[in-house]
Write a structure and sequence with these properties.
Structural class: alpha/beta
Helix content: 25-40%
Order of helices and strands: EEEHEHEHHHEHEHEEHEHEEHEH
GO biological process, one term: response to antibiotic
GO cellular component, one term: plasma membrane
Strand content: 25-35%
Pfam family, one: ABC_tran
Shape: globular
Distance between the termini: 43 Å
CATH superfamily of the largest domain: P-loop containing nucleotide triphosphate hydrolases
CATH topology of the largest domain: Rossmann fold
Number of helices: 11
Radius of gyration: 23 Å
CATH class of the largest domain: Alpha Beta
CATH architecture of the largest domain: 3-Layer(aba) Sandwich
InterPro entries: AAA+_ATPase, ABC_transporter-like_ATP-bd, ABC_transporter-like_CS, ABC_transporter_ATP-binding, P-loop_NTPase
Strand order of the largest sheet: 5-6-7-3-8-9
GO molecular function: ATP binding; ATP hydrolysis activity
Amino acid sequence: MPNIVEPKQLTKTVISARGLTKKYGDFAAVDGISFDVPAGESFGLLGPNGAGKSTTMRMIGGVSQRTSGDLAIMGLDPEQHGPEIRAHLGVVPQQDNLDEDLRVRDNLIVYGRYFGLPHSYLRPKADELLEFAQLSDKAKAKVDSLSGGMKRRLTIARSLINEPKILLLDEPTTGLDPQARHILWDRLFRLKEQGVTLVLTTHYMDEAEQLCDRLIVVDKGRIMAEGSPAALIREYSTREVLELRFGSERNATVAAQLEGIGERLETLPDRVLIYTHDGETSLEQVSGRGLHPVTSLVRRSSLEDVFLRLTGRSLVD
């Protein structure tokens, strides 16, 4: 086991923020947000680029000082107990920062030495983490020979070398192909099953729905909504969405003729969205008015629909 001093106080709430603010001059990157993260939860910060997600993560990680507000990690203030808190954190940054001069296994061992962990612990732990990350056959490979997904898995494996209680993941799957994303999701599910608290930022709605027990939707440094993915969809959207395309030149014109169908109408440049509890019935009503879209699709509501409702624009900028 790692030779790490336990924090003085452990609470069921491992992260607590009250009025957390970070300003750069007159610009508020994080503007008075409050939230709690219980131990063992997978908690997400969902929002577009520039929403304040990464800034919040840096404050939690103790590498950026807050301008105002209160922040406690495992009952401790990160500005006063930074090293003590970081000993129990695993951090996966937005960009992989692996040591290209070291081989795959050596990246884990050298990183573990920064925590003062002995070789007798690190050697078997590195092998265990390589197996967890499905990289055992790459142990002696050069880092620059790995694919993007492999590098991401190695970065996560490295973050686990000190057996952290909290794992911070800043946009963990950005730039990965679908297969690599799903492998990574599986590894994160396994960590959660082991009791690790996950805190992740993402601007991918499907990722938030897959990974997060609960999340906050942030935009321009403020919390727009908070809850589980399912609860947010129930509160801010309908069960289903009917997507209609009449052609970019006709969508806005036809939208007026769709009034009264479903619960709510949203006109986008490329399509018209009808929020409804029964998509097929709504589609029949569209046809009953003599309207014939080029394409139609009935789907379940998603977090993207929630964000459109809250901010009036797409989540992915």
